[in-house]
Amino acid sequence: MNRTRAHFLLFWGSLFGCYLLQLMPLPQTLLPLKPFWLAIVLIYWALETPEQVTLGLAFLLGLAGDVFAGELLGEQALRLCILCFILLRFRSRLRFFPMWQQSLAVLALLLNDRIVLLMVRAIAGQSPPPASFWLAPLTGALAWPWVFLLFDDLRNRWRARES
Amino acid sequence: MSVPRSTGPLFTADAANTLRLIGYLAVAIVLMVADHRGAYLPRVRYTLSLAVEPMYRLAALPAQIARESRLVLADRERLTEANTKLGQDLLLAQARLNRLSEVREQNQRLQELLAVQRSLDLGVQLAHIVDIDTDPNRHRLVIDAGANQGVQVGQAVLDATGIMGQVVETLPNISTVMLITDAAHALPVTVERTGMRAIARGTGALDALTLPSVPVSADLKVGDRLLTSGLGGHFPAGFPVGTIREIKPDASGMFAVAAVIPSAALDRSGEVLVLHQLIDAVGPPAPIADTGPPAPPAESPAHKK
């Protein structure tokens, strides 16, 4: 009981934290490096507890992200749905990858996400983004091991305290 | 919220998943198209402002705490120094103001002569920047004054040194400002020295505007200051916009392109001024009046210029 509650808190707390991180200010030079936190954390939960992460959840999380970002309703929903779908498809393989391969997979997922974003923006008639647009997936892939270790550690601790 | 899903590699599960994906993608695309056409996201955000606004404030909190703690920890010496400098600046500004008051009286007289009823009284409102960023690719600011404080979409936002942008969205207590450097932004300017009109476009870089398609023969020099022209009715006239940094021919060689450094401190956070009245209080007449009687004949020569 307690454990499910802790898990519940961690799950929703991490997603909430993502929205905050997404909105948080950074120095001008670091701004293009800001990774798509919501995607990274969603990747973690989809790998570890796939029964909780469904396409519907990804869609709703994306919609919430759109409301906070205020750009185009449905954009992040679309991106997260695609990401989530690919992830759930290859989950069983990705799960047992060593860390660096997982990082590469995350990089590929985030790059794909960028391409989707680029397509959406191009169709919406926005001017092409600067080259720094492509940096964020790199930082995302670099951040992945730390995110993974952090959440794994937190969950292990709760499990240890439990028993 | 999650329906237990069979995780086995069954074909049926996969097919169902693909179908579900297509369904969600279709919904997302419909939402995006509808939003792009009808722009109803601001309305959704307005209704959800109870959730959006606290989130913004929460996200801005760490930066605010950092700034304030820096202020608290700033040593005495630096504060004294800053104080002296500010005192001197104030003195200078006062002196300038005194001179300006004379100019203002003169202006008043001239305006009376011309029978033009415009005043340069600025109704401004101070607002603080909520230090968050919603998308690094767009140049938006969030300020802590919204519809409840009387902010309206279209109002100009300034800082001490120049035009920053305009309000593009209002929530009850927060509004979003599009900076003049946003790639989707353009504003009408005049060159201070010659009075030449041009359009300054945002480039997507915080420290640059551009004047595209200026005639090669135009009288432009590096260092020329640009002011808002007031045409178009969105921005009041006469506010500094930027300084020309570079002029070079464009790709076709038919026109020149000028790079402009914006004069407002767009990358710094703090207070901004939201210009209160829209165009009727300041500057030249709007080009097309939707309602009301036609403009008095005395105004049309000024308009043509």
Task: Give a structural overview.
The complex is a heterodimer of chains A (163) and B (305). Helices cover 75% and strands 0% of the residues of chain A. Chain A is built from 6 helices and no strands. Chain A has one domain. Chain A is mostly helical. The longest helix of chain A has 28 residues, at 135-162. In chain A, α2 crosses α6 (135-162) and α5 (99-123) crosses α6. Chain A has helices at 2-23, 37-48, 55-69, 75-94, 99-123, 135-162. In chain A, 34% of the residues are buried. The two termini of chain A are 12 Å apart. Chain B is α+β, with helices and mostly antiparallel strands. Chain B is globular and about 80 Å long. Chain B is 34% helix and 25% strand. Chain B starts with 10 loop residues before the first helix and ends with a helix. Chain B contains 5 helices and 12 strands. The longest helix of chain B is centred in the first third of the chain and has 39 residues, at 76-114. Mean pLDDT of chain B is 79; it is low at 299-305. Chain B has a domain at 186-262: Thrombin, subunit H. In chain B, the strands form 2 sheets. Chain B has a 6-stranded antiparallel barrel. The chains are: A mainly alpha (163), B alpha+beta (305).
Describe the protein's topology.
The complex is a heterodimer of chains A (163) and B (305).
Chain A: H1 2-23, H2 37-48, H3 55-69, H4 75-94, H5 99-123, H6 135-162
Helix pairs in contact in A: 1-2, 1-6, 2-4, 2-6, 3-4, 4-5, 5-6
Chain B: H1 11-38, H2 41-47, H3 49-73, H4 76-114, E1 124-130, E2 140-143, E3 156-159, E4 162-170, E5 175-179, E6 186-191, E7 197-202, E8 209-215, E9 225-228, E10 240-249, E11 255-262, E12 271-275, H5 300-304
Antiparallel strand pairs in B: 1-2, 1-12, 2-5, 3-4, 3-12, 4-5, 6-7, 6-9, 7-8, 8-11, 9-10, 10-11
